[in-house]
Amino acid sequence: xxxxxxxxxxxxxxxxxxxxxxxxxxxxxxxxxxxxxxxxxxxxxxxxxxxxxxxxxxxxxxxxxxxxxxxxxxxxxxxxxxxxxxxxxxxxxxxxxxxxxxxxxxxxxxxxxxxxxxxxxxxx
Length: 124
Hints:
CATH class of the largest domain: Mainly Beta
Largest sheet: 4 strands, antiparallel
Distance between the termini: 85 Å
CATH architecture of the largest domain: Beta Barrel
Helix content: 25-40%
Number of helices: 2
Order of helices and strands: HEEEHE
Strand order of the largest sheet: 3-2-1-4
Radius of gyration: 30 Å
C-alpha cells in the first residue's frame, strides 16, 4: 500500500548566482579586515639601532624549577644581564634585558638592534 498523503522529501534549492556573489563579497571583506589588522599590529614593532654604552650584570642568584614532560628540571641563574644602549636618533638610553649568550657576544661600542619598548602613559 502506498500512502499518497506522505509529504515529498524537500530538495535543497539550487544555488543561485546571487548567493555566490554574496559569499565571495563576505569572504573578501573578512580577508581585507584580517590583512589590515595584521599590518596595523606590526606597525608598533619597529626596531631601532643604538650603540652599546655599558654592559651591566645584576647579581640576583636564584634557582628555577620547571615541570615538563621530562619531569622536574632545576636551573641555577646567577643574575640578570643588561645592555645599556644609546640611540642616536632621540639620544635616549635604554636598559635592555638580554640572555647571557647575547650579553657575552656583544661588546661595548658595538651597534645593537632592538625593538623599542612602548611608551607607557603618564600616571594621573
